[in-house]
Amino acid sequence: MDRLTALMERFTLQVRPASLESATMVVTAGSGGASGEIWFGRAGIGAELAAEGVLFAADVDWGGASNPLLAALPEKLRYDLSADREAASLVALMHSELAAARCGSGSVINRLGEVMVVRLLRAQIEAGSTEPGLLSGLSDARLSRAIVAIHGNPGRNWRNDDLAEVAGLSLSRFAETFASVVGETPAAYLRRWRLLVARQDLQNGDRVDAVARRYGYQSAEGFARAFRQHYGQNPLAMRGSRVGHPVPEPVPS
After folding, report:
1. How many CB atoms lie within 10 A of CB 238?
2. pLDDT tens by residue, 94-109
3. Is 169 helix (H, G, I), strand (E, B) or coil?
4. Is the dihedral of CA 60, 65, 68, 73 positive or negative?
5. Which of 2, 25, 87, 246 is most buried, judging by how many CB atoms fall within 10 Å of its CB?
6. Whole-number Å distance between alpha carbons of 159 and 125
7. Residues 201-234: pLDDT tens digits?
């Protein structure tokens, strides 16, 4: 599995047209009215740009604040479309759909927007990052193998030497490099990813004991303790929250 697929499949990305004031993704015009740049950032990024130079604005919903990709991105990101004809064509099609307001335009804009976000993430990974975090780890050819393995099989009883072998590094070199580049130990990252995907499964209505077994916990009680320590809530209270009464979004530690 590649570096982004497991992450993207875990979160429902939504891209919708938005006002400039509330937009988190803004496309500005280049020479001759063609798409020039994409600006991505937190809500309010559009307020920093001149309205007359904006082709369209959208809001990117990352499927919840717990999405690690959202946390890994810089506060403000600029993407030059003049260097990427394929991305410029995507943006032009999104602009056309928005302007025409044809039947199904919202769905088309959402799908094209998701593709555009993947391209933005891919560009960030390929460019590398100077800040410790997930994108830095995915940018590293060796560490990314271990991270993708964790994402793809979080229930496996991963040990550091297993992950070091996947990465093609010695145990000591792997542990040192992972902590330096990602900003936490492999065990801490594995634990956090397990709890994140476990929370999603609970919100979808899965049983606590089934989720505990799925993600490598020896007992439902041990899983519940780890869950409460991380999220401050009992996993039973989280169960079915997407289909029943919503619960507040916990802040990951």
Report:
1. 21
2. 889 888 878 888 999 9
3. coil
4. positive
5. 25
6. 26
7. 999 999 999 999 999 999 999 999 999 999 999 9
Domain segments of the chain: what residues?
A: 5-127, 138-238
Q: Kindly report the backbone phi and psi dihedral angles of residue 10, in degrees, each rounded to the nearest multiple of 5, phi listed first.
A: -85, -15
Q: At what angle do helices 186-203 and 160-167 cross, to 10 degrees?
A: 100
Residue labelled with tokens 């609970």: 202
Report the candidate in 5, 2, 24, 145 with the shortest Cα–Cα distance to residue 74. Answer: 24
How far from the centroid of its chain's Cα atoms is residue 6's Cα? Answer: 10
The CATH homologous superfamily to which domain 138-238 belongs is: Homeodomain-like (1.10.10.60)
162-209 pLDDT, tens digit per residue, is 999 999 999 999 999 999 999 999 999 999 999 999 999 999 999 999
Q: Whole-model pTM?
A: 0.83
